[in-house]
Amino acid sequence: xxxxxxxxxxxxxxxxxxxxxxxxxxxxxxxxxxxxxxxxxxxxxxxxxxxxxxxxxxxxxxxxxxxxxxxxxxxxxxxxxxxxxxxxxxxxxxxxxxxxxxxxxxxxxxxxxxxxxxxxxxxxxxxxxxxxxxxxxxxxxxxxxxxxxxxxxxxxxxxxxxxxxxxxxxxxxxxxxxxxxxxxxxxxxxxxxxxxxxxxxxxxxxxxxxxxxxxxx
Length: 217
Known about the structure:
It is globular, with a radius of gyration of 16 Å. The protein is α/β, with parallel strands linked by helices. It has helices spanning 3-12, 24-29, 51-57, 69-78, 131-144, 172-179, 198-201; strands at residues 40-43, 62-66, 84-88, 91-96, 99-103, 117-122, 150-157, 184-191, 209-216. It has one domain: Rossmann fold (3-Layer(aba) Sandwich). It has a 9-stranded mixed beta sheet, with helices on both faces.
């Protein structure tokens, strides 16, 4: 989606995609990445996700990337942290308490900003993007991530004609087409007939599959 779509969502506080609790798949499968606790974890399109708190509690410095200043402000305010702000290439870094959130366009992120990253957590980035941007997103990750990096990727699969994204359906074949040029792709879990949130039912969704992948450089 174009940037104005997400900025408007945060302005209106229409953030049903935000989860207040730590994601269960993150807790179950993150250890499979084998990231040293001292290594940084990258969370693309992070919003104000509570998952960043869990990653920090495992010892990781956390690097988030977020388009909306409202989301970044709320993340630090809710944790009673006063961030230091400074330029980081084309983005602005907000830093406090072991968290760095880079405010700006993910596609402006450069290698220097993620040089210490050993693990990536993608719960809501790939599925938030329409097909052309998914291609650019995968290319950007291949371009900037260090060679030792691994990624935990969560996706959704459903009949796209039932509901217009976001979140978008990203089937297994597309995950592999997008990421196999730079990563090995291992399916860790696939859950059929998952519970459907009322807001998705109202949009016409009738069935949903949730998938978890491990990607390694």
